[in-house]
Amino acid sequence: MLYDGRPVELTAEQEEVASMFAIMKETDYMKKPTFLKNFWEGFKEVLGRSHVIKGLDKCDFSPIYDHLMAERDKKKALTKEEKAAIKVQKDAAEAKYKHALVDGRQEQVGNFRVEPPSLFRGRGEHPKMGKIKQRVYPRDITINIGRDAPIPEHPYPGQRWKEVRHDNTVTWLAYWRDTVNPKEYKYVWLGATSSFKAESDLLKYEKARKLKDYIDDIRKNYKRDWGSSDVRRKQMGVAVYFLDKLALRAGHEKDDDEADTVGCCTLKVENVECVPPNHIKFDFLGKDSIRYENTVDVEVPVYKAVEAFTKVDARGKRKGLRDMVFDTFDATDLNKELKALMDGLSVKVFRTYNASITLDRLLAEMEEAEDAYAGKTVDAKKADYDRANKEVAILCNHQRAVPKTHETSMAKVTEKLNAMREEIKALEEEHEAALRAKGKGKNPDAIASKLSKKMTALERAELQAAVKEDLKTVALGTSKINYMDPRITIAWCKRNEVPIEKVFNKSLLNKFHWAMDVESGFRF
DNA sequence: GCCCGTGACTCAGAAATATTCCA
DNA sequence: GTGGAATATTTCTGAGTCACGGG
To answer: Which chain C positions have some atom within 7 A of a protein CB?
Structure first.
């Protein structure tokens, strides 16, 4: 690298850290002062006190960046055969880490690799972004194996595992402390197909299904609480209403060394706006600093209550913009209260319940809306499914960044659509001309049939384009993987003769193996 | 008893990689 | 049939939730 225009020699360790920074050249982190400041503090320490490099502004990392890019290109330029050979070798080397023997069963391991050193990439305005995540060694890692199992080898001679445990009350295979956030742990777990994960998945959905039997009473309860003279009761009544209606996350309190995000219990006055006569406008950063923006119609007592909660606290003191809307309880208190309503109930159960019941309802509505629904084309039914999936994703606020290629590919699609429209116009003219010619020219019926085919193709393409535009910021996968009971989907497929492979990819098929034999009449 | 930190698990979007599609 | 762009899948690891245990 260069400093003040001159080449600088770095030790291997210094070069590694410089490379972590160089590789991030094209990311938005480079514009964030917190990132730059944290990185410089870490880099400065690695450089040592008397180093010529005295600051980041005269550093030029582009030689490193160019080198890394050249390496990347070299890899890309390998022939198909060379790439395949490398992959075979890699797979063979990794094979033995991919399975674990658990109670005599062979199970898939999830993440078997330890996280390599890098710069911490926190989401949103994370105070720790840019800090150096240190290399983790066997001496940092606690492993969990059977009492009689041989202690696995590691590639660092002279080191021992931090600890070897035999704990059959937990499901992790290994853990270590995160170096950026020492109070947090990183774990190695079994894969999504494992018995442990499958069992807890089923449990999760069964708990959410149980809420169905309690929800009427819970609603009656919270409606009554809206009129309570006890502020805590009243606030909880409104909070549970939000969970029920909007599927918000719990919102636990956060430390100053984390990004400033909120959930239901940590909503601040600045996050809600009462818009007469009965609308509430939510605007806040939730998990992963994803913005939640939603204006909802609420019942009048809720509107009045929220208006009051944003003005004064339980003791009558005026609230500021940064004060909490619900000042009489936190997420733990709320969960405790929910336990009293239903065994095992917690805030997140509402989210699972809401997502699953919504999918179930939307699919059923579509089936009921048409005679002989099962006779529709598979593509049309899949489009219906995706529409329902989209509703759920929007409910859960599952967003994604607009794909980098979206604009260009959308322009191409528009161009294609226009070309099709031109073609149709030409065909229409040709058709009329043929009709006028009365048998002397081309056969008008042949043109008409060609025309109608083109029109159908256009309609399909237009629909596809609209869906694409519609979904550019919506992530469908998260709800499919985590929130919608797979039995709803599988039963729907069975009822309507849609191959399950159309809806679930290979990993989801494996992950949801426990749900495959559900009967076609299953309703959530 | 309660509260608060800790531990262990689920859920999240981006990035990397694999596959498919289309000119 | 081919190559590269578009799209789908997989990997990665950060960011939540929530129960529990110990002081």
So the answer is: 5-20
A412 touches strand C (CB under 7 A): yes
Which of 1.10.132.10, 1.10.940.10, 1.10.4160.10, 3.20.20.70 is the CATH number of A354-515? 1.10.132.10
Does residue A466 carry a pLDDT above 90? no
Average pLDDT over residues A145-164: 93
A84 — pLDDT class (breaks 50, 70, 90): confident
Integer distance in angstroms from CA A446 to C1' B1?
Answer: 87
Say whether pLDDT at A360 is over 80.
yes
Give the integer Cα–Cα distance in Å for A80 and A123: 36
Cα angle A259-A484-A124, degrees, rounded to a multiple of 5:
15
Specify the amino acid at residue A191: G
| pLDDT band, residue A10 (cuts 50/70/90) | very high
Return the closest nucleotide (C1') to the Cα of A118: C13
Q: Which fold has domain A226-345?
A: Topoisomerase I; Chain A, domain 3 (3.90.15)
Is A74 within 7 A of strand C by CB distance?
no
Please state, in angstroms and as integers, the Cα–Cα distance from residue A38 to each residue in A118, A332, A386, A452, A453, following that order: 13, 33, 43, 63, 61
CATH of domain A85-188: 2.170.11.10
Closest alpha carbon to C1' of B4, residue: A332
**Strand B reaches within 7 A of the A27 CB:** yes
Q: Is A65 a catalytic residue?
A: no
Which position among A65, A222, A241, A483 bears the catalytic label?
A: A483
Identify the pLDDT of residue A436.
81
Q: Omega into A33 within 30° of 0, i.e. cis?
A: no
The CATH architecture one would assign to domain A2-77 is Orthogonal Bundle (1.10)
Among all strands, which nt has the closest C1' to A110 (CA)? C11
Rounded Cα distance, A267 and A236, in Å = 13
pLDDT for res A470: 83
Average pLDDT over residues A355-365: 97
Q: Where are the domains of chain A?
A: 2-77, 85-188, 226-345, 354-515
